[in-house]
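Exercise (ungraded).
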Amino acid sequence: MKRTVPLLIAMFAGIMLLASTFIPLTETWGETVTIWFDILAVGAFVLGGGNLLKIHLEKISSKRSGWAFSVVTLLAFVITLWVGLVQWGVNPPKLYPTHSWAGNYIEEGSGLFWIYDNVVYPLTATMFAMLAFYVASAAFRAFRAKNIEATLLLFTAFIVLLGRTYAGVFLTDWVPGFMAMITGMTPEHFNTMQLDELTGWIMNAPNKAGNRAITIGIALGVVSYSLKILMGVDRSYLGQD
Amino acid sequence: MLRRHWAMILGLTTLFLATGTAFATAGGATGSDVAHEWNLLEELFNPKKTWLLIWFILISGVVVYYIRVASSGKDLKVREIAGLSAVDEAVGRATEMGRPVLFINGILDINDIQTLAGITVLSRVARTAAEYGADLEVPTCRALVMTTARETVQEAYLAAGRPDAYNEDRIYYLTDEQFGYVAGVTGTMVRDKPAACIYMGAFYAESLILAETGNHIGAIQVAGTAMPSQLPFFVAACDYTLIGEEFFAASAYLSGDPKQMGSLKGQDMGKLIGAFGIILGVLMATLSVLFGGGIFETVLVYLSEYMFGDDGFLMTIILMAGGGG
C-alpha cells in the first residue's frame, strides 16, 4: 500500500500531463496537476525550515566544527522569517489605507525587499563573480595540450576566445582583402579566414551539431525514463529499486 | 502488471486514432461543415501535434516492446558506461580513506526528471556505501528532495542489511537559494574533505563552482546531468561525466533489472530513428541545393516544418480537402 498509492498517483499525474499535451480539452487538467505539486511544495517549506532548525541547533549545542556558521544561519533565518511574517515596513494598499497587512510584502520599501536588495543580492553576485576564477582554473587544466584531442580543443578555444573579442577583427580583417589580391578572387570567398567569422562558423556548424546530438539523446532518455516511471518499472524514487 | 499498462497505452492510442478517423471522415464534407466539425474536434485533439504524437507512439512502442522482450528472459547486450563503474570505485576509495561520500542531487525540485534520475543513482550509491560501511552525506536544495532522498537511502541501507548504519541527519536541507546552497556545500567540502563527490541532477551556473572545489580538495568526482550548457564544466573538472542520455540510462544500468535494460535498447532504437531523420534531411538539403529545389525542397520543408515541426499533418490535408486553403 505504501508503494502502490504513490505509484498510482505518479501514473495518474503523468497521464494527465501527457493528455493535456495532445488534447486541448484537458489542457487545464495538466495545469491542475501542476498546482497539486505547488501545494505539496508549500508544505515542504515547513519540513525544510524544521530540518534547518534541528540540524543547526544540534550543531551549536554540540559545538561541532563550524558551529559559528550555524549561529549566523539561524539568525538570518529567524530575522528573515520575522520580517516577512510581521510585514515589516510594508506599505498599506491604496484601497485599504488602514490595513498594512494587505500590502505587497516584496514591493520596494518593505523589510523583505531591503533584505533582498542589501544582503541576498550582493552575496549572490559575489558567489557568481567567483565563477570567473573557477572558469580560469578549469580552462587551464582542460586546455593543456596533452594529446591530439586536447590540442585541437586548445586551438579551437583560442580561435573562439579571440573571435569573440575585437582582437579577432583587429588581427585578421586584412586577410580576405590580401587573399583576394593574391588569388584574384573576391574578398567574400575568404571571409571565413577572419577570426570573428571563423568563430561564427565553429559555433554554428560543429558546435551546434554536437550540441544537437546531445539534446536528441537527452530527449530520448527523458522519454524512456518517463515511460519507466509511468509503467512502474523504475520505482527507485519510492525507495525501492 | 505489464498487461494492464499495455491496456492503458492501447486505450490512449485508440482515443487518438478515433480522433484521427473523425478528422479523415470530416475531410469529405463541404467547407462550412468542415469548419463546424473542426471546432468540435479541435477540442479533442490538437492537429498541430499529430507528428509529435506519431513520434511519441513510435518511440514509446519500441521502448515498451524491448521491455517486454527483456522481461521474457532474452539477453540484451548493452554497452558499458565508464562513469557508472566509477561510482562504485569512488565509494570504495572513500571507505579506504575513511572520509565521507558527498552526493549532490542538483538544484531543482523533485518534479524535475533529472532530480528523479539522480535519486535513482543515489539509491545505488547508498546501497554501496552501506555495504562498504562508508559515510554518505546528502545536502539538498529542496525540502521535498530531502524527504525523497531520506526514504531512498533508508531503503537502500535496509536492502544492504545495515539499517542500523542509516543516519537521517546526514541527508539535510540547506536552502532553496542557488548560490546560498553552493556556499553551504562548498563550505562542507572544504571542512569535511569528502573523498568522493557525486553530482547527479540538474545544475546551472553552480556546476563549475562545485566541481572545481571538489577538484581542489582532491576528491574523485563523478557527474551526470542533462543540462548541455553545464556538461563542458563537468567534463573539465570531474574524473567521469555521464553525458545526457547516459545519465538517464544510469538507473537501468545500475539496477541490472532486465526490464530496465530493455528500455535502454528501446532508447537506442529511438536514436536510430533520429539518425535516419537526420541523414534524410541532410540528403534532401544537399540534393535541393544541387538540383535547384523541386521535390527535394518540398520533402525538406515537410521534414523540418511538419514531421519535426509543429505545422501538423492531418490539419493541412483536411483544410485542403474542404477548400479551406
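Further reading is listed at the end of the chapter. For now, observe: Residues 1-76 of chain A form one domain. The two ends of chain A are 16 Å apart (CA to CA).
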